Amino acid sequence: ASFSANAGITSFQHSFFDNFSMNLIRNLKNKKVEIETFNLSYPGIKFKEKTQELKNKINDYNPDSVIFSFYVEPEEHEIFKDFIHYLNQKNIIAFYIFPIINPELINIPKGQSLTSELLLGPELVSLNELIINMKDKNSVHFLNSNQIALDLNFSSKGILWWDMGHMTPFGQELLSDELSKNINAILNKKGEH
């Protein structure tokens, strides 16, 4: 899903990016941690097209944590592994969010219920297998937004999709709340050590 088009958003305050950032900031400020967030979103591009630019930005800002979500095609797997290794070497707390997919785009076999595997499709299933076997996998936290949406039954909570590829303001807020809750829990746990 793309959030960059801000589908149905009349105020940036209701966008995924703003809500997500504010949730992280509120949590960390409560812990008396100084925080600044940077949104480096790139609409409609392939991971390999922006990898070097991302590394340059990370070198410029030297962040404590990086949260990223790109579709990673099978031919980009080696680039993805290299990027994870790069984050690991820099001791950055990193989070990769599997992009959420509109269930209406999925052909569900007759008599079968919607599963995370069906939502992910063969490309993201192969990425998931790559992650499981990666030597640097423990350096990055992987969050599957599709599994979160299924586990918490998002579809029963309201209208989530503006069109086939963009979430409504309600859907963006719901997803950003849950993802930031997961990330805050991990950051809080790391802060205790």
Structural overview:
This protein has helices at residues 16-30, 47-61, 77-89, 116-132, 145-151, 169-191; strands spanning 65-68, 93-98, 140-144. By secondary structure, the protein is mainly α. Helix 3 links the parallel strand 1 (65-68) and strand 2.
Query: Which of globular, elongated, flat, extended, rod-shaped describes the shape?
Result: globular
Sketch the topology as an H/E string, one letter per element: HHEHEHEHH
The main sheet comes to: 3 strands, parallel
Task: State the helix count.
Answer: 6
Beta-sheet strand percentage?
5-15%
Helix content: 40-55%
The largest sheet has its strands arranged as 1-2-3
Distance from N terminus to C terminus (CA atoms, Å) equals 35 Å
What is the strand and helix layout of this fold?
Layout: H1 16-30, H2 47-61, E1 65-68, H3 77-89, E2 93-98, H4 116-132, E3 140-144, H5 145-151, H6 169-191
Parallel strand pairs: 1-2, 2-3
Helix pairs in contact: 1-6, 2-3
